[in-house]
Amino acid sequence: MKITIFGLAITSSWGNGHATTFRALCSELHRRGHNIVFFEKNVEWYASNRDMPHPAFAKVHIYEEWRNALPLARRELADSDIAIVGSYFPDGVAAIEEVLESRVAVKAFYDIDTPITMAELREKGTTDYLRSNQIPGFDLFFSFTGGPVLRELETRFSAQRAVPLYCSFDPEKYKKLPVNPRFACDMSYMGTYAPDRQPKIEQLLCEPARRLLQQNFIVAGPQYPKEMRWPANVEHIFHLEPKYHPELYSSSRITLNVTRRDMVMAGYSPSVRLFEAAACGAAIVSDNWPGLDTFFVPGEEILVASSAEESVRYLDGYSEAQLRRIGEAAQARVTSEHTSSKRADEFEAKLSEVGSIAARTA
Fold it and tell me: DSSP letter at 101?
């Protein structure tokens, strides 16, 4: 099948979880023989930091202005079997109109930011990339978030079929590696700066670092304010290329997962970093949120913390053997349920269901 995607970015993972998600899914679909076409707007932030400018698994069209890209988009859609528009695509509303008016057999929206999308739709009925009145036109509404929000999409916003399509990881890239002395630490955290996330990082990483001066901590991620002052035993890495992510996870006694406020409120919204860290056998300490226990068993596959004291207890009170067992259990769980191959299976299954329904209707 030919699959045409309009997405935020696939060529740059700089502060961009969309790229990681699209790369894992598209590379697996390409391996299965599908033809992938990807439209990406030339945004300066990503243009200056392209770590995969020419993906081997997709034909990428990088454009400057939508009006100039429109003829090419129409040509690609003309013989596509599936068309997908992703959340935060800069010209999302216009691209959706083209997709909905096309003769493509299956039309889908892939929301990698469902809680944010839903908050804006409830308040204003529109976002910069999707209008509520466009939702019923899609055959499938793929969502990064599961749980109750799927029912709301169908009942309140008239989505034909709202189904979860969680993030995934590539097991060839994310796996347990030997400890790299460069990244060896007691606790790591990787993520782009977000004001709503920072208080938890302060509570679950920075405060424990102040109490455990003999231990070492690493925070990796861009966009942190220049005036921010980290504890002396916390190293900040401005940007860590994806090829080093498995080394950081594999070299950390514990890695921290902190969830955006909107994701916590919606629940059932695992981040791609969570699955990638687990794939590397990392012992994960996470904040708590509704639905977390549907992905990992607390106390056995993941550790949950809501205070600095709990974080300190894990860092200072758990043996290496205990942490290793938790990391290995998490690795087994995600390897069974959240690889790019599993996600491609789910993707193809949903497309097959839509095709069967369409055939019966016809």
Answer: H
